[in-house]
Every structure is written in structure tokens, then in C-alpha cells.
Amino acid sequence: MTAFDEHRRLLFAIAYRLLGSAADAEDVVQDVWLKWSAADRSAVADPKAYLARMVTHQAMDQLRSARHRRETYIGPWLPEPILTQGEDVSDDVSTAMLVVLETLTPLERAVFVLKEVFDFPYPEIAAAVERTEPAVRQAGHRAREHVRARRPRFDADPRRRRDVTERFLAAAAGGDLNTLMELLAPDVALWTDGGGKVRQARRPVVGATKVATWLAGVSQVPYEGILPSDMRVEIVELNGAPGLVFSGPDRVIATLTIDLTEDGLIRTIHNVANPDKLRAVTPR
């Protein structure tokens, strides 16, 4: 196994957390491979640090240009879901966490990911982001405070998450408003990402009554030409937690993940339906 192959999963993991897009992360890893193949590697003492520095630099460049595109994105922009069945992942790759990371600057996001997720030492991070070590430490402090304020450290038991997901699916599919109201937190927020390409809410739906009504309503009508009776729903592991993949006869049409309060109520629902963002969950 070559040094690049040995660290490829790490490189993708870094790029995905920086970009929130599996497709963009794969592009970054491919670009790094091309540069690595053409580089003089005889003087590379630590391939892991060298490759991590390359992928971080490439991803940060792409993130800066992506942020401009996301300013003109139609409706809410959500991260691209990935299948994580059987992989050792933690809460840092959850949809909710990636949404929080979107609010950081590219520098803060890179420092947070490299330090808090992958435990790289500050000197290596400074080299990767081309900043001084004091500047990196300061950016890391800002990022941690920002994330802590917006993403309290609470990890629901996986069995509890799956149980709530199953009950939520049954209630939504059956149009059961009473059960939905029991499962939803009073201030629950539903975010739907259609990218302007499919029919989805272009603003967050907030409040238990509004969210329950919206969910019960859409479950009873055709979606993009597909009848409810022709839809298939699977519970799979998406971004480290139980999630739902909705499919028609010939394609995946959406994913849905939930985030829970400490009391086990659903506080956030993330629904990705933009066809361009479903490629990573299609080949199951």
C-alpha cells in the first residue's frame, strides 16, 4: 500500500468536514493525489502531515469559492449526506455539527477540524493553514467557543435515536398528527434543501404545530411525479446516526435526519432533496 492509499480515508474525512460535500471532498482528494504523484517525495519525512497539509490547503481554497456560491443558493443550504454504516465516526460528522461548522470562517473551520477532530499538533496546523502558531491558537479558541454556544455537547444513545426515528417515520407516513406532536420539541425547526431543483420549503418551518402539519401533508401527496404508494423508505446510518433514505422506483429522492434534545424530543429535522446532493447515498 502506498503512503497516499494509507491515508486516503483520513484525507477524505478532513476534506468532507471542511466542505460539507462528499463530491467536492472527492475532487479535492483527487487533486491532491495528482499533485502528490508529481511531487518529489524523497524529502518528505512525514507523509501523513504532508498530505494533510495539502488537502487542507486545497479544501480551504475551494471553501472560499463555495461560500460565494452558497450566498446565491436557492433555499437553505445543507451538507451533503453520506452513508456511515459500519464506520467509526463520532458526532463531529453529524448533519447538525456540519451546519454549525458552516458558520465558521474557513480558517476557524480548518483549525477546529484539524485540532478538535483529528488532534493534529498546532505546529502542523499552522503549516497547513499558513498562519503563525499564535494566530492558529486564537482561531481555534474562537471556533471552540462558537461551536460550544451553538452545539451543546449532548450525544443521544444510538438506540434512543433509532427508536425516535422509527416512531417519527411511522407517524409522518401515517399522517398521525398527535404522535408527531408528542415527538417534536415546541420550538422544533425543519430545514429542507431542494436547491431550487425540486419542490421544498425555501425557508425553515418552525414550531411543532407547523412542522407536524407540513410533514403530515406532504406524506399524503405525490412528490416529483412519484406516488406515496411507490415510495420506499429505509432506515440507514447517515452521518453517524440513524436517518431515512426515501426512494422512488428508479432513484433516491431525499434523506432526512433528526437531532434530539436531552429529553429525547426532536429539535431539528434536516431534509436534503437536491438531486445533486444525493449521489453519495445512491449506490447502496
List the helices and strands and how they pair.
Blueprint: H1 3-19, H2 22-38, H3 47-71, H4 95-101, H5 106-117, H6 122-129, H7 133-150, H8 158-173, H9 177-183, E1 184-193, E2 205-206, H10 208-218, E3 232-238, E4 241-247, E5 252-260, E6 266-272
Parallel strand pairs: 1-6
Antiparallel strand pairs: 1-2, 3-4, 4-5, 5-6
Helix pairs in contact: 1-2, 1-3, 2-3, 3-6, 5-6, 5-7, 6-7, 8-9
Verbal overview:
This protein has 284 residues and is an alpha+beta fold. The chain folds into two domains: 148 residues, PhyR, sigma-like (SL) domain (Butyryl-CoA Dehydrogenase, subunit A, domain 3, Up-down Bundle), CATH 1.20.140.160; 124 residues, Nuclear Transport Factor 2, Chain: A (Roll), CATH 3.10.450. It is 49% helix and 15% strand. It is built from ten helices and six strands. A six-stranded mixed sheet has the order 2-1-6-5-4-3. Strand 3 and strand 4 form a beta hairpin. The chain is globular. The model has no long low-confidence stretch (mean pLDDT 91).
Shape: globular
Low-confidence stretches: none
- What radius of gyration results from the CA coordinates? 20 Å
- Count of β-strands: 6
Please tell me the CATH architecture of the largest domain by its name.
Answer: Up-down Bundle
CATH topology of the largest domain: Butyryl-CoA Dehydrogenase, subunit A, domain 3
Quote the distance from N terminus to C terminus. 26 Å
Derived structural class: alpha+beta
Q: How many domains is the backbone divided into?
A: 2
CATH superfamily of the largest domain: PhyR, sigma-like (SL) domain
What is the residue-mean pLDDT, rounded to a whole number? 91
Q: In the CATH hierarchy, what is the class of the largest domain? A: Mainly Alpha
Query: Could you spell the SSE succession in H and E letters?
Result: HHHHHHHHHEEHEEEE
Contiguous helical run count: 10
Question: Into which percent range does the helicity of residues fall?
Answer: 40-55%
- What fraction of residues sit in β-strands? 5-15%
Largest sheet: 6 strands, mixed
Strand order in space, largest sheet: 2-1-6-5-4-3
